[in-house]
């Protein structure tokens, strides 16, 4: 008997944008997935389940076979070093940018070793390595904007949607964005072979919805 198709999603703002895409291709959760305390949610398709996990855990669930498919931000994927996943589709939701920011007098080319606060240490390290700059990375999980204000860091690397939080804390973007971010559909490599027909159909249907074409 074929195992149900498992799709790893994350609660919060991205889930609210993701569910309409799946509903547009005929995949609807049973009950309110945005409010449920369940971590595994049935859908109107008996052979497809939704798994609700932390955004940062989605790549691991997909890579190690806990889920066949997942939806997570490109920022999470850039930080994840796994190789057991495909990234076949940009869902064009959750758009933002990964930026370097600091106080108005901060300089990204300042001499010496810069202290950079971020929850993206691997991406940050690679970015400054390409620039030939030495940095001391301080791993934080939130309230990044506070670090420069209390003198804990010279700069931060974080995602920015509108920039309102930076402005409210007297910070500004320094230089060009590191990269553009949006939510991506990812697929386990083994699942792509074993459940190819169903996964391929889902990718094609979602691609049509994202591009604005009718199914």
Outline:
By secondary structure, this protein is an alpha/beta fold.
Question: Which SSEs are present, and which pair or pack?
Answer:
Layout: E1 5-9, H1 13-24, E2 40-42, E3 48-52, H2 58-63, E4 69-73, H3 74-79, E5 85-90, E6 96-103, E7 114-118, H4 121-130, E8 135-139, H5 146-149, E9 155-160, H6 164-168, E10 171-173, E11 179-181, E12 183-188, H7 189-194, H8 196-211
Parallel strand pairs: 1-3, 1-4, 7-8, 7-9
Antiparallel strand pairs: 2-3, 4-12, 5-12, 6-9, 6-10, 6-11
Structural class: alpha/beta
Percentage of residues in helical conformation: 25-40%
How large, in whole angstroms, is the Cα Rg? 19 Å
Overall spatial form: elongated
Give the low-pLDDT segments.
Answer: none
Biggest pleated-sheet summary: 6 strands, mixed
CATH level 1 name of the largest domain: Alpha Beta
Count of DSSP-assigned helices: 8
> H/E order of the elements?
EHEEHEHEEEHEHEHEEEHH
- Mean pLDDT across all residues, rounded? 93
Strand adjacency order, main sheet: 2-3-1-4-12-5
Number-wise, the strands total 12
Task: Give the CATH H-level superfamily of the largest domain.
Answer: Periplasmic binding protein-like II
Estimate nothing, just give the exact number of structural domains: 2
CATH architectural arrangement of the largest domain: 3-Layer(aba) Sandwich
**What's the CATH topology name of the largest domain?**
D-Maltodextrin-Binding Protein, domain 2
Strand content: 25-35%
> How far apart, in Å, are the first and last alpha carbons?
29 Å
